[in-house]
Amino acid sequence: MHQDTIGTVMITQEEINAKAAEIGQQIEKDFAGEEVVLIGILRGAVLWMGDIMKNVNLDMVIDFMAVSSYGASTKSSGVVKINKDLDTNISGKNVIIVEDIVDSGTTLNYLKAYLQNHDAKCVKICTLLDKPEGRRVDIDVDYIGFTVDDRFIVGYGLDFDQKYRNLPYITYLEQE
Ligand SMILES: O=P(O)(O)OC[C@H]1O[C@H](OP(=O)(O)OP(=O)(O)O)[C@H](O)[C@@H]1O
Ligand SMILES: Nc1nc2[nH]cnc2c(=O)[nH]1
Ligand SMILES: [Mg+2]
């Protein structure tokens, strides 16, 4: 029988809030006096996007893209599907992609190239979590909240088969 349960708390909401404030300050410094376009990647980045945007006091436009490559699995299909495209013209703009996790790197590698092809001035990446052991494609990540080990993470936006996104902390899936 297939069953899934979740583990203990790995990262608390308080730790995430403190980290968002720290990264927000760094972004303010890096883009002082400039406008930024934050692009949140649905659905996983939904909570982290809110945390980052309220901690960055700069001229800002936000937009969202929805992409998926995991479906109901814990392994990437390797194929990135755009379910919702940009609604903003990012030509000449400072773009910051806000993601929940960089694992194989497939999603961000694809998105970074996609946004560069839309003539952004620069494309930076801000992720809540980085899982370096999962990497299959090299990718430069500019702002990292926390580094996690090679477990399937859930909570704080991250799902397994669309569940657990509402957990207000980061934990992992115990698979049998
Ligand atoms: O580095 P990668 O191996 O590409 O994995 C990272 C991506 O996988 C998850 O998205 P998913 O496809 O599960 O969609 P979701 O955000 O709707 O859960 C996550 O939100 C990242 O976008
Ligand atoms: N929920 C979840 N989605 C992912 N997408 C890529 N890696 C992960 C992970 O560890 N957890
Ligand atoms: Mg997912």
Give an account of the 3D structure.
With 176 residues, the protein is of the alpha/beta class. It has one domain: 3-Layer(aba) Sandwich (Rossmann fold), CATH 3.40.50. Helix content is 22%, strand content 31%. It has three helices and nine strands. The chain starts with a strand and ends with a strand. The relative contact order is 0.21. The structure holds 1-O-pyrophosphono-5-O-phosphono-alpha-D-ribofuranose, guanine and magnesium ion.
Give a short overview:
Keywords: Cytoplasm, Glycosyltransferase, Magnesium, Metal-binding, Nucleotide-binding, Purine salvage, Transferase. The protein is of the alpha/beta class and 176 residues long.
Structural class: alpha/beta
Distance between the first and last residues' Cα: 9 Å
CATH top level label: Alpha Beta
> Which percent range fits the helix content?
10-25%
Number of helices: 3
Main β-sheet, spatial strand arrangement: 4-3-2-5-6-7
Residue-averaged pLDDT, rounded? 95
Largest sheet: 6 strands, mixed
Draw up the topology in text.
Layout: E1 4-6, H1 13-30, E2 35-42, H2 46-54, E3 59-68, E4 81-84, E5 94-102, H3 106-116, E6 122-130, E7 143-147, E8 153-154, E9 171-175
Parallel strand pairs: 2-3, 2-5, 5-6, 6-7
Antiparallel strand pairs: 1-9, 3-4, 8-9
The structure holds 1-O-pyrophosphono-5-O-phosphono-alpha-D-ribofuranose (PRP), guanine and magnesium ion (MG).
